[in-house]
């Protein structure tokens, strides 16, 4: 069996067994392919553990971030775990490869007034402008990922209950909630604005957010709209669509929401992923304390 055939089987394994996203599958397969090119003529089914150490030293000399190196190692470990499970190798030589510890930086987030400033800066006089505003507002009030939002269909909406059904990483289904004000704006988009962008059927499986050709609005288009808005209002803080998700989580915790509830709303598989926002909240409390308390300095 050729290397490419092994990679194709590995790709199927990542999709069907691990439920990885398409983006992650591409990254893992690219990482493994690079490793296979590096070992050149060596039989990758007979690799010894010290070869992995040599490869880690090699990629460590390249200007990769710690996150990228960790992912490359994780990709190789996953590949050899797959080979072992399929009984293509007698033992897993990558079993003891350690992934370097990463120092987790606190996520960027926006204060509520900053979000409102951005939303006000979007010109809603045009259909696309109105659509872009409701998209960013949805990211802010629901904590959805940009990929979850762009993949929404009409069948995902239960607006009578202020609910939206989304599919997160690994096709995990969850319900996110939206306030009445956002619901009203979304209904107006559906009933009056969407047809001005492009007249397309609003069937259950039709995309909710569309471009002028009637096709599903892609992530890149949402990022571009946000970038243009920030430029128009001279907003200098670093902001991506994902920052709205961080801001949602931070605001919820600052207002006393239970960590488990926030975990559920964000769709985190582990509460460890949610706990980083408690550090953000604590930092926010410290900032407020130091700037307002008379004896703080």
Secondary structure elements and their pairing?
Elements: H1 3-16, H2 22-39, H3 49-60, H4 66-85, H5 112-120, H6 127-142, H7 146-150, E1 157-158, E2 163-167, E3 173-177, H8 180-197, H9 219-232, H10 241-254, H11 259-266, H12 271-292
Antiparallel strand pairs: 1-2, 2-3
Helix pairs in contact: 1-2, 2-4, 6-8, 6-10, 10-12, 11-12
Can you describe what's shown?
The chain is mostly helical and 297 residues long. It has two domains: 3-85, DNA polymerase, domain 1 (Orthogonal Bundle); 117-242, hpI Integrase, Chain A, CATH 1.10.443. The chain has helices at residues 3-16, 22-39, 49-60, 66-85, 112-120, 127-142, 146-150, 180-197, 219-232, 241-254, 259-266, 271-292, and strands at residues 157-158, 163-167, 173-177. A three-stranded antiparallel sheet has the order 1-2-3. Helix 2 (22-39) crosses helix 4 and helix 11 packs across helix 12. The model has no long low-confidence stretch (mean pLDDT 87).
Question: Keywords for this structure?
Answer:
single chain, about 300 residues, mainly alpha, DNA polymerase, domain 1, hpI Integrase, Chain A, 2 domains, 3-stranded antiparallel sheet, about 55% helix, globular
| Class per helix and strand makeup | mainly alpha
Low-confidence stretches: none
Distance between the termini: 68 Å
Q: Total number of β-strand segments?
A: 3
| CA-atom Rg in angstroms | 23 Å
Biggest sheet, strands in spatial order? 1-2-3
SSE run: HHHHHHHEEEHHHHH
CATH superfamily of the largest domain: Intergrase catalytic core
Number of self-contained structural domains: 2
Second rung of CATH, namely the architecture of the largest domain = Orthogonal Bundle
Indicate the mean pLDDT. 87
So what's the oligomer here? single chain
- CATH fold-level name of the largest domain: hpI Integrase, Chain A
Helix content: 55-70%
What overall form do the CA principal axes indicate? globular
How is the main sheet built?
3 strands, antiparallel
Number of helices: 12
């Amino acid at each position: 069996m050729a290397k490419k055939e092994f990679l194709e089987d590995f790709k199927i394994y990542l999709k069907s067994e691990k439920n990885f996203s398409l983006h992650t599958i591409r990254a893992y397969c690219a990482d493994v392919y690079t490793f296979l090119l590096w070992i050149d003529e060596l039989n990758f089914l007979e690799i010894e553990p010290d070869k992995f150490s040599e490869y880690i030293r090699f990629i460590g000399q390249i200007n990769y971030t710690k996150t990228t190196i960790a992912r490359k190692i994780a990709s190789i470990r996953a590949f050899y775990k797959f080979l072992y499970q399929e009984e293509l190798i007698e033992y897993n030589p990558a079993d003891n490869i350690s992934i370097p510890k990463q120092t987790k930086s606190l996520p960027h987030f926006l204060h509520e007034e900053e979000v409102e400033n951005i939303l006000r800066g979007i010109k809603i006089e045009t259909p696309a402008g109105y659509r872009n505003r409701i998209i960013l507002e949805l990211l802010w009030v629901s904590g959805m990922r940009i990929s979850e939002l762009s993949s929404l269909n009409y069948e995902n909406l239960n607006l009578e209950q202020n609910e939206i059904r989304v599919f997160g990483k690994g096709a995990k289904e969850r319900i996110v909630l939206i306030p009445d004000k956002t619901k009203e704006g979304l209904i107006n988009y559906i009933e009056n604005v969407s047809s001005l962008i492009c007249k397309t059927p609003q069937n259950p499986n039709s995309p909710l957010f569309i471009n002028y050709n009637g096709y599903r609005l892609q992530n890149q288009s949402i990022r571009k709209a946000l970038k243009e808005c920030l430029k128009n209002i001279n907003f200098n803080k670093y902001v991506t669509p994902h920052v709205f998700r961080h801001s949602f989580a931070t605001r919820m915790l600052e207002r006393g929401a239970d960590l488990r509830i926030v975990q559920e709303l964000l769709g985190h598989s582990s509460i460890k992923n949610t706990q980083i926002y408690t550090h953000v909240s604590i930092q926010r409390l410290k900032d407020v304390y130091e700037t307002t308390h008379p004896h703080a300095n």
